[in-house]
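Sequence in, structure out.
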Amino acid sequence: MNKIITEITPLSEKDCFYLVDRTKDEFNFPIHHHNEYELNFVEGCSGARRVVGDSMEELGDFDLCLVGHGIEHAWEQHNCKSQVIREVTIQFSNDLFGEVLLNKNQMSDIRKMLDESSKGVAFSMHAIMKVYSRFERLVKADSGFDQMIELLQILHELADDGGRRLLASSSFARAKVHSDSRRVSKAQDYISKHYKEEIRLNDVASLVGMTPTSFSRFFKLRTGRSFSDYIIDFRLGVAIRSLMDSTTSIAEICYDCGFNNVSNFNRIFKKKKKCSPKEFRELYQKHKKLV
């Protein structure tokens, strides 16, 4: 199976960021990844589809997304009929701000958002409209210094967006799951190690010292998902990574990820991802190129 294309950005060690503002009539760049952070604003994209890891979403007229190191992503034509698509892409290295600056209290929200970008972050329409004029100022700024200040302002505004959403699942992105709750972290760690096996609510509840009923309520309150939904989503993330990275049959992937039968796997996959496992694999293969 071909590999996902690795984009080599034109950034040098002396550059703060790479900026491109372009108008085009179609999306045609394949699914890819790179080492840099990428903030991508798209206008006139109604009907296009954004692919970030195992997340696929059809877009409205505007989209703003931040993707981090290594996560696969692309915007594809899908149902987009627009002949005038504007795209502003900003790429910057993961050491632009440095650990010392990012550890300052004033940068904590930006740091958190950059950490989240390992799974891709989609911003709310409210946030997009809030920074729209800043993108214009950044593009038209006379000096690189002024552009850098505008980029910081944009990141600051976006880090305050309470409506932003994470896109790829943690299991797909192979990202560590952090929780303020020791009990939730312990349960999540157990799931990550035993997802191939049958996982019983009673066993996990006992592991964290709670009754099954209390643990179910507690887990949903802390994660926003029921215990069973979390397990399904975790298994799907692992399954989708296997669909992309291997030629293993769908049936083998199904059982290897803890699903008990192929029909059930196909049904859940289509419900969650709006396409079948076969269609998802074909989508990625269609956009793949050799590195």
